[in-house]
Amino acid sequence: ARHTGPPDGGWGWMIVAGCFLVTICTRAVTRCISIFFVEFQAYFGQDYARTAWIHSIVDCATMLCAPLGSLISNHVSCQVGIMLGGLLASTGLILGSFATSLEHLYLSLGVLTGLGFALCYSPAIAMVGKYFNKRKALAYGIAMSGSGIGTFILAPVVQLLIEQFFWRGALLILGGFVLNLCVCGALMRPISLKEDRKTVPEFLEQDHVPETEKQDLKEMSICSPLIKVWSHECLCYCSWKEYDFLLMPGFMVLAVSILFMAYGCSPLFVYLVPYALSVGVSHHQAAFLMSILGVIDIIGNITFGWLTDRRCLKKHRYFCYLFAVGMDGLCCLFLPVLQNFPLLVPFSFTFGYFDGAYVTLIPVMTADVVGTSSLSSALGVVYFLHAIPYLVSPPVAGWLVDTTGSYTASFLLCGFSMIFSSTLLCFARLAKKIKRMHLRSLTNDTGMKQHIWTNGAIAYSVTAELDQKDVEFLAVDTNSCSNR
Where are the transmembrane segments (predicted)? Predict the structure, then answer.
């Protein structure tokens, strides 16, 4: 389908539904892997740090391979990429159910499942941005709420599955559930926007492309989506156009802040259940904390998406995002003093709400910075930047727990990391505003003012420069001017 702009509805709501299911099958399932943490640790007899690598590798592979998902989506098909990802993720979970060592789980549940999730996640999110503009934040809020709803439903279900079928049976059932990603992929009908169709014609107007090659490219562009790989020059040009946002100062600052934000948010989903168990909370109550976090995450997704689409807040999405990240950081700082179930429930409410809030705004902010045409590639890079923090932070937190015998150091490090991410964005925006005001004042100081007086046949043009006191008078005879 061809559109001059995003339709903001119609089949777009089916795209939102598909992305909603994708986030359930990817992010919610990844969060629920933390419920297996105690089971894996007891079965294989390993410490916190080694067991935490399973969750780290899943998250890292999902984010590290996100550009690969964007590449397949851009050059082949979003539908093909998501279906292939569903098959890989399901295969990894099924193979993980037969694991005989942690290393086996690293490869199957970690690498293979993470790669499958990567092929699904960023293309599905990018499709929502292509179908919506005016209601983009709301659409993303609904789509991203799948993570919270999935966590709310799956957390107690996975706990029951573990009790009934042991962790092997639970992983096998999750493997079958994740095959629903193939259904989600079938919903992702491609859309051609006006700004997307400018790429090849703009390239064809370049002088260095021969006329015969231009004609061939024009003909093939109608027949094949793989045109960009058939010409080396066209491939280089289109690749540069897809990733030229990397040099934008706004995107650079956002990228650095995301590194710290990702480091701070990951360990909590791994260690919330073990921490609750360590302070005397029962297994069912600990799983219920994850469910609370998940359902409040939904409210954060939808309400923050709806609020930031309002006219009064639409211009302040940037500050809404950094506020949400900062509040999650504060929650992490207070977590070590919450040592019973009644105190952990308000924590799950607060952390879950603001987690849903900033997760919704990540693709919205990315679209505001780079534009819709580069959104898929930009989201691939943004989620790629999550990879290293997601890989490193849970094992580092586990090492701190093993070393200190307490969760305090781990949670404090997470909290300060997220607060630093928020503070960095705040200072970057203030610096940009100060620079803009400085440039405006310089423009006013060096500006030219021109005044013209007319008196009969004589016109005097006076040009005054504010930083120089000299004034030039020019007298021009109107009769001679008219003769010319």
Answer: 12-30, 80-99, 105-126, 138-159, 165-188, 251-274, 286-307, 319-338, 344-366, 378-401, 407-431
Q: What is d(CA 228, CA 221) in angstroms, rounded to the nearest whole number?
A: 9
Q: Please give the Cα distance from 147 to 153 (Å, whole number).
A: 10
**Phi and psi dihedrals of 374, rounded to 5?**
-105, 10
The verdict on residue 204 lying in a domain is: no
282-288 contact pairs (CB < 8 A, 24+): 283/159, 284/156, 284/159, 285/341, 287/35, 287/155, 287/156, 287/158, 287/159, 288/155, 288/156
Please report the pLDDT score of residue 8 as a whole number. 65
Residue 451 lies in a domain: no
| 208-212 contacts at long range (C-beta below 8 A, 24 or more positions apart) | 208/233, 209/233
C-beta atoms surrounding 474 within 10 Å: 9
Give the pLDDT confidence score for residue 373 in this predicted structure.
66
Rounded CA-CA distance 349/358 in Å is 15
Dist CA 373 CA 191 (whole Å): 12
Q: Which tokens sit at 21?
A: 């299911």
Assess if residue 230 is contained within a domain: no
Domain CATH number, residue 364? 1.20.1250.20
pLDDT digits (tens, 9 = 90+) for 234-286: 444 445 556 667 777 778 888 888 889 888 888 887 788 888 888 888 888 88
Domain count, the chain: 1
Between CA 373 and CA 375 the distance in angstroms is 6
In a domain, 42, yes or no: yes
What number of residues does the chain have? 484
Q: What is the residue range of 183's domain?
A: 11-193+243-432
